[in-house]
C-alpha cells in the first residue's frame, strides 16, 4: 500500500470525507482528509498527493481560488466535487485548471473510476515513452511537471497542461482534433470541455513564450483542431 497513489480529500462535511475515504481505500488508494483549506495547504508542505478532491464550498477559503493555485503550483490531478451544478460553475472550474468536475450527490464508484482514469492516462505505454522530451530548445519533464526554457528558466506545469503537452509531443506535426482530445484526455463533450481545452492551450502558449497572433509551436487549424509544429528530440 505504501506505493499506492495518495488522494487528498478536502471537504468540510465529515460524512463526505468518510464516504470518499472508504471507497478509495477499498479500491487500493491511500487517502488523507481535511476539513479546512488551511489544514490542507499546510499538509502540502510534507505530502505530495497524486490527486486532490476539492469541494468548492469551504468555510475558510474560496474553493475556486484554491483550485487555481493548485493548478499553477502542483502536478496533482485536480477533481472538483461540489454541490454547485450550474454549467457556469463547471466551466469556471475547468478554466481555472481542474481536470474534472463531479456534482453532488455522487456515486463513490464514479469518483473512483474518474480518479483511475486521470491517473492512468499519463502512464499508458510509459515503458516505451521518454519522460523528458526536448523540442525547439525547450525541455518538458513529465515526472516533475516542469517546463524548461532555452535560457534555463523553469516553469511548473499543471497536471492538465502536462496532459495536453504530452498529447502534442506524442503526435508532432499531426492534426489533433477536438474529438481526439476528448477521447485521450477524457471529459464530457460540450462547451465546457471546449473552453477548458482553449484555456489550457492558451496557458501552454504563454508558458512557451508564444506570440498569440503568430504562434510558432502550437498552431490552430480553425474548425479542425491544433498542430504541434516542433520536432521532438
Automatic annotation (TrEMBL):
The modification 4-aspartylphosphate is found at residue 55. Residues 6-119 form the Response regulatory domain. PROSITE patterns: OMPR_PHOB (PS51755), RESPONSE_REGULATORY (PS50110). Keywords: DNA-binding, Phosphoprotein, Transcription, Transcription regulation, Two-component regulatory system. It comes from the Bacteria. CDD domains: trans_reg_C. Residues 130-230 form the OmpR/PhoB-type domain. SMART domains: REC, Trans_reg_C. It holds the Pfam family Response_reg. Residues 130-230 bind DNA. This is Response regulator transcription factor. It comes from Paracoccus nototheniae.
Amino acid at each position: 500500500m505504501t506505493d499506492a497513489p495518495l488522494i487528498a480529500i478536502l471537504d468540510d462535511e465529515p460524512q463526505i470525507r468518510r464516504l470518499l475515504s472508504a471507497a478509495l481505500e477499498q479500491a487500493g488508494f491511500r487517502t488523507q482528509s481535511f476539513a479546512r483549506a488551511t489544514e490542507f495547504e499546510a499538509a502540502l508542505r510534507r505530502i505530495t498527493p497524486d490527486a486532490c478532491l476539492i469541494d468548492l464550498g469551504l468555510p475558510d477559503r474560496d474553493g475556486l481560488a484554491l483550485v487555481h493555485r493548485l493548478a499553477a503550483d502542483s502536478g496533482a490531478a485536480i477533481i472538483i466535487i461540489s454541490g454547485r451544478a450550474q454549467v457556469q460553475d463547471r466551466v469556471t472550474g475547468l478554466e481555472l485548471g481542474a481536470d474534472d468536475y463531479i456534482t453532488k450527490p455522487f456515486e463513490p464508484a464514479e469518483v473512483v473510476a474518474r480518479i483511475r482514469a486521470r491517473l492512468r492516462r499519463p502512464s499508458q505505454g510509459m515503458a516505451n515513452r521518454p519522460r523528458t522530451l526536448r523540442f525547439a530548445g525547450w525541455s518538458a519533464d513529465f515526472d516533475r511537471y516542469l517546463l524548461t526554457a532555452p535560457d534555463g528558466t523553469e516553469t511548473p506545469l499543471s497536471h492538465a497542461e502536462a496532459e495536453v503537452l504530452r498529447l502534442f509531443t506524442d503526435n508532432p506535426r499531426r492534426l489533433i482534433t477536438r474529438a481526439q482530445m476528448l477521447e485521450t484526455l477524457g471529459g464530457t463533450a460540450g462547451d465546457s470541455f471546449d473552453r477548458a481545452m482553449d484555456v489550457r492551450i492558451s496557458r501552454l502558449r504563454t508558458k512557451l513564450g508564444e506570440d498569440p497572433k503568430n504562434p510558432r509551436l502550437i498552431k490552430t487549424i480553425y474548425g479542425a483542431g491544433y498542430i504541434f509544429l516542433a520536432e521532438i528530440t
